[in-house]
TrEMBL record:
Domain of life: Bacteria
Transmembrane intervals: none
Listed Pfam families: Inositol_P
Catalytic activity reported: a myo-inositol phosphate + H2O = myo-inositol + phosphate
Keywords: Hydrolase, Magnesium, Metal-binding
CDD domains found in the cross-reference section: Bacterial_IMPase_like_2
Entry protein name: inositol-phosphate phosphatase
UniProt EC number: 3.1.3.25
């Protein structure tokens, strides 16, 4: 890797390691409050958000930031409207807050670096499991990037298996209507959007659906899944590129991820009863 990409990767590792250390101290011990959209937030979410913001500002002058959390109306408006900058970090400081507050050890810190509105680098750290995912995906950006997807610095790739009752498919709580007679896989529900899709990237799971993910839930995983050979299926509108000036606070991106394009037709008929 050249110096630029080394800087990006080192920054993601250093920042999430530091933030993750404190979050592990808070894990299962903090009280949550309910946001206007019904999701939970804790003081740990807000602390982690500010730590990551401050690190970005001090390291990457002129880069935009799009984030889930904020402490003020001014920051909320600025933080959830996509900026008119060539480069932008999209951050979810604590994906899986409900798991985090209940002591369930699946939650993550998710970072995505976007170039002209499209993610090209993803980094997701899962502190309770000591798992670090990262990947690069140049796509049609015209940039020269490193290649591949990695778990703890080891290359990962999606499964080439055909669906069967010995394979898993991940759902969220809002996509359970997909469970119908003849569904070809066993069902799992992990409670964390990023990890839902990353388990496909490792080959552990053949597919997954998230009915209402926000952009900060998927920006990092979007890169890693595709770099690992997976197929990303947008079920409403295309997730990327993002558009400057658009407020993404209430915009969801219904998504299905599968291990390879050949099995998309196997699962799409089951989507008819799912409301997005």
């Amino acid at each position: 890797m050249n110096d630029f990409w080394n800087t990006i990767l080192d920054f993601a590792e250093t920042t999430t390691t530091r933030v993750g250390k404190q979050l592990m101290q808070d894990f299962g011990k903090v009280q949550a409050s309910q946001k206007s959209d019904g999701s939970l937030v804790t003081k740990s979410d807000k602390w982690a958000d500010q730590e990551i913001r401050d690190a970005i500002v001090s390291t990457f002058s002129g880069y935009g930031i799009l984030s889930e959390e904020s402490d003020s109306e001014e920051l909320l408006q600025a933080g959830q409207t996509f900026p008119n900058t060539e480069w932008c970090w999209v951050i979810d400081p604590l994906d899986g807050t409900t798991n985090f507050t209940r002591g369930i050890p699946i939650w993550s810190i998710s970072l995505g670096l976007l170039y002209r509105g499209t993610p090209i680098f993803g980094y997701v750290y899962v502190p309770p499991l000591n798992q670090v995912f990262h990947g690069f995906w140049a796509g049609s950006s015209g940039l020269t990037t490193p290649t591949g997807a990695f778990l703890n610095n080891h290359p990962i790739h999606t499964s080439k298996d055909a669906p069967s009752k010995n394979h898993f498919f991940n759902l969220c709580s809002r996509s359970t209507d997909i469970i119908q007679p003849g569904f070809p896989c066993k069902i799992r529900m992990l409670g964390v959007a990023s990890y839902n899709f990353l388990s496909v990237a490792t080959g552990a799971v053949l597919g997954g659906i998230e009915a209402t993910p926000k952009v900060w839930d998927i920006a990092g995983a979007w890169v890693i899944v595709q770099a690992a050979g997976g197929t990303w299926v947008s079920l409403n509108s295309e997730s990327f590129p993002l558009s400057p000036g658009i407020d993404y606070s209430d915009r969801s991106f219904p998504t299905m991820v599968v291990s390879n394009s050949d099995i998309v037709p196997i699962f799409t008929p089951f989507l008819e009863n799912v409301k997005f």
